[in-house]
Write a structure and sequence with these properties.
Layout: E1 7-11, H1 15-25, E2 29-36, E3 39-45, E4 53-57, H2 67-78, E5 85-88, H3 92-101, E6 105-112, E7 118-123, E8 129-134
Parallel strand pairs: 1-4, 5-8
Antiparallel strand pairs: 2-3, 3-4, 6-7, 7-8
């Protein structure tokens, strides 16, 4: 079976702040920026993974979501309760220094984990948890 990840979604409440973080701090490239019916979707991705995209979307962007569902999603986002993404990096400490310098909310400084990776964690401007993992050198 040939199955690969193509696209994942991260809810954001302010696309300009999200772009400043994902593009300017993390170095992801903007691949698409679409507005439709009062909503905006911005697609970003790593230049190292041209076939994988992250869509920054409004909370509750599903067209079938009720107003109550949209409100609940916005409230969960504001609390930092929505799931984020785990990124890999060749140098966790250098990435940590760059992201910390940007003023991002630090959740965990770089540390060696018992399962063999070195990682750190931040919240993006919308409150999503993002982890950055470095595989051990073999």
């Amino acid at each position: 079976m040939d199955v690969k990840l193509k696209t994942c979604f991260i809810a954001v409440d302010d696309h300009d702040k999200a772009l400043a973080f994902y593009r300017d701090v993390l170095g992801l490239e903007v691949r698409n920026d679409v507005s439709f019916e009062g909503m905006r979707w911005v697609t970003v991705g790593s230049p190292l993974q041209p076939d994988v995209e992250i869509v920054l979307e409004p909370p509750g962007a599903n067209p079938d979501a009720s107003p109550a569902d949209r409100q609940a999603m916005a409230e969960l986002l504001a609390k930092g309760m929505l799931r984020g993404v785990i990124f890999s990096t060749a140098d966790c400490d250098a990435l940590y220094a760059r992201v910390q310098e940007s003023g991002a909310d630090v959740i965990q400084e770089p540390m060696d984990q018992p399962w063999g990776v070195r990682d750190c964690a931040f919240r993006d401007p919308a409150g999503n948890l993002l982890r950055f993992m470095e595989q051990p050198q073999v």
